[in-house]
Specification:
Blueprint lengths: L20 H15 L4 E5 L23 H11 L3 E5 L8 H13 L3 E5 L12 H17 L3 E4 L11 H22 L2 E5 L6 H11 L4 E6 L10 H8 L3 E5 L2 E4 L11 E4 L8 H10 L5 E4 L12 H20 L3
Parallel strand pairs: 1-2, 1-10, 2-3, 3-4, 4-5, 5-6, 6-7
Antiparallel strand pairs: 8-9
Length: 327
């Protein structure tokens, strides 16, 4: 586990200057959309990665491909409250097109998160071109009307490399991006991307210490590092601004040292204590999307991702009602 000495900026003997009135006003505006939301069920477009033409090695390609508009139509049919839109599946970043997507989302009353960074994001803090792209992507998020943008700091590609240098570099990069996020009133939500433990994520958010940097809590990815998701949520719930609600179970015959050994199931069918995680989020005042994500679907579900998504939506509706007492 990473141990990092306290930096000078957290020295208790040094008093932080009071923020300006204008700075405080912008921070309130940035957080206001989240305060007005209720806990809502959504779908991340990555559930349909095969249908978007991005099958993992070992997965069969989809029989037919879909467009972003098809995904949004299916989300509407399922009656969900919102979507998380992966930038890797956006057919265009033209401002006119993004405004059209925003209008479609607005017409259907859908909450939205813009998701930048698949698969490797900032590459553990080593890719400054990716940092530039991330900052520019805040413009795309704003055009879509998103108040939260999922971002990726590292990935499983770098998980066996030393974590402390990655985290320190990422903290610096996120600080560089915060003025642009603040200007747009958008919170960057860092996903646990099979890269860092919950303690390491906690260090990152505490170190950067900004309302414009929060967490996209993936309920499955901590398990893939043998880190308890519920204990992780207990530490991190106050930072959560977006989610990937993912459930997992072991895949017989898959290599135990591969990330997909724990393969996706419909939410509620796997090992993850989803009710406990939803309750912790609710108790922490989380009011954003519970966005279902399926990555490498377990072979026990030959009906495919769409059927798994539909089952997951029904399960999450029941759990949210039980936890919140609201329909």
């Amino acid at each position: 586990m990473m141990t990092v000495k306290a930096s000078r900026r957290h020295d208790s003997t040094r008093q932080k200057p009071e923020p300006s009135t204008e700075h405080s006003r912008i921070m309130r505006l940035a957080l206001e959309p989240m305060r007005n939301k209720t806990m809502k069920i959504g779908i991340d477009s990555f559930c349909y990665h095969r249908q978007f033409g991005k099958a993992y090695p070992g997965q069969a390609p989809a029989e037919s491909l879909i467009r972003l508009e098809d995904f949004l139509g299916r989300a509407r049919e399922l009656g969900v409250d919102g979507v998380s839109l992966e930038s890797c599946f956006m057919p265009s970043f033209d401002a006119g097109y993004l405004r059209e997507v925003k209008a479609l989302l607005d017409e259907n009353g859908m909450e939205r998160v813009y998701a930048w960074g698949h698969p490797n994001g900032l590459e553990g803090g080593r890719n400054r071109e990716a940092l530039k792209e991330m900052i520019e992507s805040l413009d795309h998020a704003a055009l879509l009307g998103a108040s939260v943008m999922r971002v990726v700091g590292s990935s499983r590609r770098y998980v066996k490399e030393p974590h402390e240098p990655q985290l320190r570099a990422l903290a610096g990069m996120f600080r560089e991006a915060i003025p642009a996020a603040e200007e747009h009133g958008i919170c960057m939500a860092v996903e646990n991307h099979i890269d860092f433990t919950s303690d390491e994520m906690l260090w990152l958010f505490t170190e950067v210490d900004s309302p414009y940097l929060g967490m996209n809590f993936d309920t499955g990815n901590f398990l893939r590092l043998l880190d308890d998701p519920v204990k992780g949520m207990e530490k991190l719930a106050r930072f959560v601004r977006a989610t990937h609600v993912k459930d997992l179970k072991p895949q017989r015959g898959a290599p135990a040292d591969q990330w997909y050994f724990f393969s996706s199931t419909p939410v509620g069918d796997g090992l993850i204590d989803i009710p406990a995680l939803v309750r912790l989020l609710y108790e922490a005042g989380y009011q954003g999307l519970l966005a279902i994500e399926i990555d490498y679907l377990h072979p026990d579900y030959p009906e495919g991702e769409d059927a798994a998504v539909e089952q997951s939506v029904a399960y999450l509706r029941r759990i949210v009602k039980e936890v919140t007492g609201k329909n």
